[in-house]
Automatic annotation (TrEMBL):
Coiled coil: none
PANTHER family referenced in this protein's UniProt entry, alphabetically: EXCINUCLEASE CHO (PTHR30562:SF10), UVRC/OXIDOREDUCTASE (PTHR30562)
GO cellular component, one term: excinuclease repair complex
High-level lineage: Bacteria, Pseudomonadati, Pseudomonadota, Betaproteobacteria, Burkholderiales
Name used for this protein in its record: Excinuclease cho
PROSITE patterns: GIY_YIG (PS50164)
SUPFAM superfamilies assigned: GIY-YIG endonuclease (SSF82771)
InterPro entries xrefs: GIY-YIG_endonuc (IPR000305), GIY-YIG_endonuc_sf (IPR035901), GIY-YIG_UvrC_Cho (IPR047296), UvrABC_protein_C (IPR050066)
Gene Ontology MF terms in the entry: endonuclease activity; hydrolase activity
Single GO biological process annotation from the record: nucleotide-excision repair
Keywords noted in UniProt: DNA damage, DNA excision, DNA repair, Endonuclease, Excision nuclease, Hydrolase, Nuclease, SOS response
Domain GIY-YIG: 36-110
Length: 298
């Protein structure tokens, strides 16, 4: 039975309407030029405005899957040609896609289009410390320790903290979510949902240890290197080095000795998308990482 690949990479059964025809209004030459290699692609309209930026380990396969997807008919009707940019691997494609979406603000990229203002829960290791909500505009999340979770709003951070407190039978008052009345237990203790740290039935040290353990899965990893590092990828003999500093993607170079070609970015701070792309493979040592010594041009 024939199958087809959707634009999100799913393999599905081909239906009777899946016989492929190139859309007549999209430049055929731009489609024929698409390589079956890693990189990003950009659907553009007749004014050259970017409509959608995507990435794939096979640019050609993914773009053709868009053309077969009825749910994307509106974007396809506006498209006139497809541009592409090669990368030497999947990591480079992910990093470049995230950067271009923020820079270009394509109409149909809604998930990553806006740069989010982040906040996080900050909890010092000392017993008795209360989680505090801190903001990226005031703290460099790339080097601040004892941060837990990345949130788009203060409300989201408080909701997550309350969820953890409820699940672990922690004390809302000791977690900063409730104000105690002198001589009275917190409301959760009154309904047997708190182990009693608020009234001395659980030690402050034990409560703090349990709170730390519950938050630990959300720990924000500080940049683990002294300076910028290069993530090396290779495809068909072509090598790229993706330069990262403090969870910020500075750009990609073909050879480490040409790193001075990188231009000074207008913004250089913790980037949530770069962090999410890289933190797990870096901590699992899945990437080839090398020091990069360079000076950034203005």
């Amino acid at each position: 039975m024939q199958t087809r690949i959707t634009s999100v990479g799913l393999l599905v059964k081909a239906g009777p309407d899946d016989k492929f025809k190139y859309p007549h209004h999209i430049d055929r030459a731009s489609l024929d030029a698409l390589p079956a290699k890693p990189g990003i692609y950009i659907f553009r309209d007749e004014q050259d405005r970017p409509l959608y930026v995507g990435k794939s380990v096979s640019i050609r396969t993914r773009v053709l899957s868009h053309l077969r997807t009825p749910e994307e008919a509106r974007m396809l009707r506006q498209s006139r040609y497809v541009e592409y940019r090669r990368t030497a691997g999947e990591i480079g494609a992910l990093l470049l896609e995230a950067r271009l979406i923020k820079e270009m603000q394509p109409l149909h990229n809604k998930k990553l289009r806006r740069t989010r203002e982040m906040c996080s829960l900050h909890l010092l290791p000392e017993a008795g410390a209360v989680p505090e909500i801190v903001y990226a505009r005031e703290h460099d999340f790339a080097c601040t320790t004892d941060l837990y979770g990345l949130f788009a709003t203060r409300k989201a951070a408080l909701e997550k903290l309350r969820e953890i407190v409820d699940a672990e039978r922690l004390c809302p008052a000791m977690a900063g979510l409730e104000t105690l009345t002198r001589g009275r237990a917190c409301f959760a203790r009154q309904i047997a949902r708190c182990l009693g740290a608020c009234v001395g039935e659980e030690s402050a040290q034990d409560h703090h240890r349990r709170l730390h353990a519950a938050l630990d899965a959300m720990r924000v990893v500080a940049w683990p290197y002294a300076g910028p590092m290069g993530i090396v990828e290779e495809c068909d003999g072509w090598m790229q080095t993706h330069v990262i500093d403090r969870w910020f993607y500075l750009g990609s170079i073909d050879h480490a000795e040409n790193a001075t070609q990188l231009k000074r970015p207008t913004r250089r701070a913790f980037d949530i998308d770069t962090y999410k792309i890289l933190v797990k493979p870096i901590m699992r040592r899945e990437l080839r990482i090398e020091p990069v010594a360079f000076s950034i041009k203005k």
